[in-house]
Amino acid sequence: MSTEPEVLVGVHGRVGRLTLNRPRAINALDHPMVQCLDETLAAWEKDDRVDAVVIDGAGDRGLCAGGDVRAMRDSALGDGSGASAFWRDEYLLNARIARFAKPYVALMDGVVMGGGVGVSAHGSVRVVTERSKVGMPETTIGFTPDVGGTFLLSRAPGELGTHLALTAGSAGAGDAIRLGLADHYVPSERLPGLTEALLSVSSADGITAVVERFAEPAPEAPLWAERGWIDACYSADTAEEIVARLRGHGAPEAEKAAETVLSKSPTSVKVTLEALRRARDLPDLPAVLEQEYRVSCAFLTGSDLAEGIRAQVVDKDRDPHWDPPTLAGVTDVERFFAPAPTGPLGLTG
């Protein structure tokens, strides 16, 4: 067993560096990691000796694959208190990153899913590579996009965010930039040089110049090229109508998307669609995080979250038994938006 910390924390000259250090788990976040990140950023924000922050992930598989879903399942099978406490601290961390007053550079190489999006895509300087896969895969495990994911996806052009959310899809570098999930493209072979240069800057003013020196034009955006059928189909008001439009459109990719949506938790699909629509009308990230916390806690009262994680991560049979099993069977979405039993996050007045 490794004795290294799960988050490597260091200051190099004027730059603080955070390295998520669970490479065997693609740096999935557990509660102590979230607490470490939050406490460190809180200290650095007030430290005049730290002008900027860089966050990356150990290993070569990705920045972060999300939260520790096994622990989430264990909590869901119990009283849910562990999961709700984790989400509270995680969402407060996401809000801190978004309002961080100094340059916050996220190196989004490889897998960047779920909680990985939360610790990167709210930053002020977001770098992707040709290996980047950025997405919110929650409907696959009977959950819903969180960590501000519904804020980001609801504000993506057209209905691209809705497509990604309902299908649990991911965006490569070009699409991530087009969707507003990232800012700069740097080939992975140039990341070591970029990292070294970032850790050598003498002030916050040098961050942008360094990134631009290593950046290249973004690659093709295949998802963006499919906007015609995506916007036409996902603009429907209900999940059932979205599936019907996808099936009736005629584009092969639309038919595939319909089957993908139907394979996800019906409850997750319907709740996620409603969460995205509501997020569009909310004023800012804090308000959306408050909504996400209510929705996340409500998922602890059903069976799909534990069942989805069982099927994908524990038993890996990829054969979840959703309850209810169809979109038509999901009739009470409103309950997911009721106040959380543990109270609000306190991010809004």
UniProtKB/TrEMBL annotation:
<dbReference type="GO" id="GO:0005829">
    <property type="term" value="C:cytosol"/>
</dbReference>
<dbReference type="InterPro" id="IPR032259">
    <property type="entry name" value="HIBYL-CoA-H"/>
</dbReference>
<dbReference type="GO" id="GO:0006574">
    <property type="term" value="P:L-valine catabolic process"/>
</dbReference>
<dbReference type="InterPro" id="IPR029045">
    <property type="entry name" value="ClpP/crotonase-like_dom_sf"/>
</dbReference>
<dbReference type="InterPro" id="IPR045004">
    <property type="entry name" value="ECH_dom"/>
</dbReference>
<keyword id="KW-0378">Hydrolase</keyword>
<feature type="domain" description="Enoyl-CoA hydratase/isomerase">
    <location>
        <begin position="15"/>
        <end position="332"/>
    </location>
</feature>
<dbReference type="Pfam" id="PF16113">
    <property type="entry name" value="ECH_2"/>
</dbReference>
<protein>
    <recommendedName>
        <fullName>3-hydroxyisobutyryl-CoA hydrolase</fullName>
        <ecNumber>3.1.2.4</ecNumber>
    </recommendedName>
</protein>
<dbReference type="GO" id="GO:0003860">
    <property type="term" value="F:3-hydroxyisobutyryl-CoA hydrolase activity"/>
</dbReference>
